[in-house]
Q: What sequence folds into this?
């Protein structure tokens, strides 16, 4: 794990966007296409705006989400709408978006249709950007959920999850899917998230803090992109 710290979000967002864009350009040069998996929540919004403005062959990039809350597109908690309204804009408007929210009423039973929606996603993933909750969840691998052991052990691409300490059913990439990446970034902003990171690094029970399964592995490089100061 490599910690990359910035003075503030005004410095972090363009620099992180250039770093991600560089990796996507390298992948396109090497194989003609690239995959980018992003997270939702509140942290990535200004970074999405910065990334959307970078010039690259976005028509060769497939974007998807590491997880989604099972809500309609017009719900304020929709990660899909966050991506559509902030990342799939400007130069990035021509990227392909593989959605992980489908029309089923429940996430439970929708795994097959979500897996089908992801069938065109180039794998291994070129860039995976994760967030982290105060409870140490990442994607929607929640420590509180009944599905956490299966989320760690499953060979499937996605898993439906019902958190008990956060709202909404979720659809999440499984741990195996998340680790099928060339480069992982953990994007965190603020001292409280840094405290969670430090706690995650201080012990090894991944069921207590699922982010440990990402941080404490040696197969995929992980850069933590961090600033304490949100402007
Ligand atoms: O519920 C979720 O939370 C995490 C962290 O979100 P943030 O608001 O603290 O940035 C996020 O990474 C995940 O995609 C989201 O569904």
A:
């Amino acid at each position: 794990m490599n910690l990359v710290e910035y003075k503030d979000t005004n410095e972090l967002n363009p620099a992180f966007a250039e770093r991600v864009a560089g990796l996507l350009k390298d992948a396109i040069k090497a194989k003609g296409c690239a995959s980018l998996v992003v997270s939702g929540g509140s942290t990535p919004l200004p970074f999405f705006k910065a990334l959307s403005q970078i010039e690259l062959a976005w028509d060769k990039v497939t974007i998807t989400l590491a997880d989604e809350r099972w809500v309609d597109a017009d719900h304020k908690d929709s990660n899909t709408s966050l991506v559509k309204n902030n990342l799939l804009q400007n130069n990035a408007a021509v990227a392909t978006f593989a959605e992980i929210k489908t029309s089923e009423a429940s996430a439970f039973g929708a795994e097959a249709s979500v897996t089908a929606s992801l069938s065109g996603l180039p794998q291994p993933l070129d860039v995976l950007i994760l967030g982290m909750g105060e409870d140490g969840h990442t994607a929607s691998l929640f420590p509180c959920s009944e599905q956490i052991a299966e989320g760690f052990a499953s060979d499937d691409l996605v898993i439906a999850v019902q958190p008990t300490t956060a709202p909404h059913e979720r659809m999440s990439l499984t741990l195996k899917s998340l680790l099928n990446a060339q480069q992982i970034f953990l994007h965190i902003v603020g001292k409280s998230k840094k405290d969670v990171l430090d706690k995650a690094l201080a012990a090894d029970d991944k069921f207590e803090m699922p982010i440990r399964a990402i941080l404490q592995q040696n197969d995929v490089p992980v850069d933590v992109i961090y600033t304490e100061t949100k402007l």
User: Anything to note?
Assistant: DSSP finds eight helices and ten strands in the chain. Helices lie at 9-31, 45-52, 79-86, 111-117, 148-153, 175-178, 191-201, 212-215. The CA atoms of residues 14 and 87 lie 14 Å apart.
